[in-house]
Amino acid sequence: MILPWHLYLMALLYIGAGINHFRKPGMYIKIIPPIFQNPKLINILSGAAEIILGILLTIPATTLFAAWGIIALLIAVFPANLYMFQNKKAGFGLPRWILFVRLPLQIVLIYWAYQYIF
Fold first, then answer.
1. Buried b (16+ CB within 10 A) or exposed e, 25-36
2. 117: phi then psi, degrees, rounded to nearest 5
3. What's the predicted TM-score (pTM) here?
4. pLDDT (tens place) for every residue of the chain, 118 residues total
5. Using an 8 Å Cβ cutoff, are 82 and 34 in contact?
6. How distant, in Å, are the alpha carbons of 8, 24, 50, 59, 87 from that of 5?
């Protein structure tokens, strides 16, 4: 079975983002809210999850599982996006409007993953 090109695009984006967790961990650790303990472990787990789920998206037998996993991951990392918006230091000096736009972008990404469930 050949999967649609946009699913491969999604997979590539998650794999790339996951790899980036290991290339530039400080960037991701900085946006993890202080309420969470062991941000280094959280960074490793979320990066590994993005890579694994991205790969699983491209395997027809696991696409459904991977899509649900990505939805769960996007919900799990939402506090980091909210923290970036609320904390100037975590926001990397980006304009607040960009940080605000990132919040509903999560809904778009969830919807995109949801398309592969049916």
1. eeebebbbeeee
2. -85, -25
3. 0.92
4. 788 999 999 999 999 999 999 999 999 999 999 999 999 999 999 999 999 999 999 999 999 999 999 999 999 999 999 999 999 899 999 999 999 999 999 999 999 999 999 7
5. no
6. 5, 28, 19, 13, 37
d(CA 96, CA 66): 32
**Phi, psi for 24 (deg, rounded to 5):** -135, 65
Q: Is residue 15 a contact partner of residue 70, using CB atoms and an 8 Å limit?
A: no
> If phi over 0 gives left and psi between -120 and 50 gives alpha, with beta otherwise, what is residue 87?
beta
Token match 């991205």: residue?
54
